[in-house]
Amino acid sequence: MSTQGICGLAADISTALGGNKVTVFEAVAELEEVGAGLQITPNGTRLLRAWGLQEQLIGKATPPETFSMYRYDGRLLAHRDQYDF
After folding, report:
1. What is the pLDDT of residues 1-35, one digit of tens each?
2. Which of 1, 17, 59, 85 has the lowest tally of Cβ within 10 angstroms?
3. What H or E segment, with its residue span, contains residue 29?
4. Which strand (E) or helix (H) includes residue 47?
């Protein structure tokens, strides 16, 4: 598979868990922290739970206080004030 970013890696993991052989190639020589955060949406959280990773990550995650999604023109599409983690 040829994939990019976290979504590509998620596709690779799901494919491997489905019983298929997957080889992941990475362009950088060494993986390291870059100081950036990663926001995982509810669908991503469901994937992590399905992969059995929720318990390992729960102590390292900070749930958002609020979440708002806007269209390209600034119109609000969705807003949520409370999250159950």
Report:
1. 666 777 788 888 888 989 999 988 877 788 777 77
2. 59
3. none
4. helix 42-50
Q: Which residue, 39, 13, 11, 8, is CA-closest to 26?
A: 8
Distance CA 44, CA 39 (A): 9
Quick one: pLDDT at residue 25?
Answer: 82
Angle at 17 between CA 15 and CA 23, to 5 degrees: 55
CA atoms of 37 and 43, how far apart (whole Å)? 18
Non-local (6+) Cβ contacts of 41 within 8 A are: none
The answer to whether residues 10 and 47 touch, using CB atoms and an 8 Å cutoff, is yes
Taken in order 34, 12, 51, 80, the sign of the CA dihedral is: positive
Global pTM reads: 0.53
In degrees, to the nearest 5, what angle opens at C-alpha 68 toward C-alphas 58 and 54?
15
